[in-house]
Amino acid sequence: MEQFKNNVKKRIDYLGMEIAWMLREHGKTVVGEVSVKQLLGGMRGLTALVCNTSYVDPYRGLFISDYAIPEFEDKLPEEIFYLLCAGKFPNETELAELQEELAFRAELPDYLWTFIRQLPRHLHPMTMFSLCVLALEGESVFKQKYEAGELGKSEYWEYMLEDAVSLLAKLPALAAAIYRIHLLREEPMDYHPSLDWGSNLAHMLGVNPELSFAELVRLYMVLHCDHEGGNVSAFTSRVVNSALSNLYYATSAGLNGLAGPLHGLANQVCLRFIRGIHERFGESPGTDQLDAFVREELDAGRVIPGYGHAVLRVTDPRFTAFMEFGNRHCPNSPFLQTVKKLYYVVPNILKTYKEGKVANPYPNVDAISGTLLYQFGISHFDFYTVMFGISRTFGFCAQSIIALGLNQPIIRPKSVTNKWLMDALERA
Ligand code: FCX
Question: Which site in 29, 71, 381, 386 is 20 to 30 Å from 264, CA atoms measured?
């Protein structure tokens, strides 16, 4: 992995130079302020983190380096990982080097197979996934070297990268094993050495041999890989890693955040939502029926899954990319048709709901991703967030590699009490 490491090192050195300049010239310059509303409101809109792997523009969506979604949506997941870490796409030999390494490390250790098979069946697949990542923690080379006192601070990132590649290499076999053993109740499929990482995942899930399914899995992995640093899962993973907990701990922690219904679990909730609509109105509901259904949900105090976002203020470009895929591959799917009708109905309702309080009435990625997985044969909804998690692990890993390369310290903001805040307000 020499070329990969060299390219990541170049990126870290470059970013490090920028940071040195900012600290030298502007260490005390104030670039923002915090309102009481932000302090009490989940820090929404507060600029408090630097994350160099990706950026979310409220109106244009996800950028990785300077590339917007249409410029990278046709890439392989491993190319995206390269881009997240090195800030550039790999050339042919660089890609081959990384792919060889991923293939070399893809096998699961025997103890993990035993662990997977013994997991209680009632656990949610996200719980299984997070537990399995945690169970691999003893594999961490970073941890072994750190405990042996063999690591200087400037080498931390290199061993994070070692751990990242080992972990990512194993995710297709690991996730597919959970799906097949516990949800399908079938035997796992063998790893296919001639396939790339994403195609192997599609192959090992074993639900659909069509090329278009591998294409969907590839796109799914690319679109979910990272979404800057402040979302629940990425932030959690980064905070945990900032204590020098290794990437297995950090990834498992991030996955636990992703498992919440306001975050990654929304994709599974969305599909149940659409199925609920079909059960009630049939597979071709009218827009007036959908309008009434959505209003009922809101009146019952429930959120409309797949709509809204803490940062985006337009339709999520990841939603648009999936919609284009759906239009090409399954335009007549009743689920896709209902997603389209909801897109027509929901924003208009949310715009005026709670006196216009919903900051973004438009769909996010979760409004459609599950529909496509379902259409292509992944019929167990509970697995959708695992798919999200496999992909998001690319981002967790890249963010921590870069942060440690830049010697970022342990994350530890200061919290205050109501009394402290009220005293401060009285003095202001
Ligand atoms: N349905 C109903 N109400 C909504 C809503 C929705 N889809 N989106 C926002 N609101 C409500 C909020 O609940 C909040 O009400 P409150 O003040 O009475 O609590 C109000 O509108 C203002 O919230 P807003 O500032 O717009 O949104 P937040 O940044 O607080 O929250 C999420 C963002 C994504 C959590 C919110 O829009 C939501 O709950 N959406 C539905 C769940 C979902 O799709 N999650 C996935 C998001 C994402 F893509 C991901 O991380 O995977």
Answer: 71
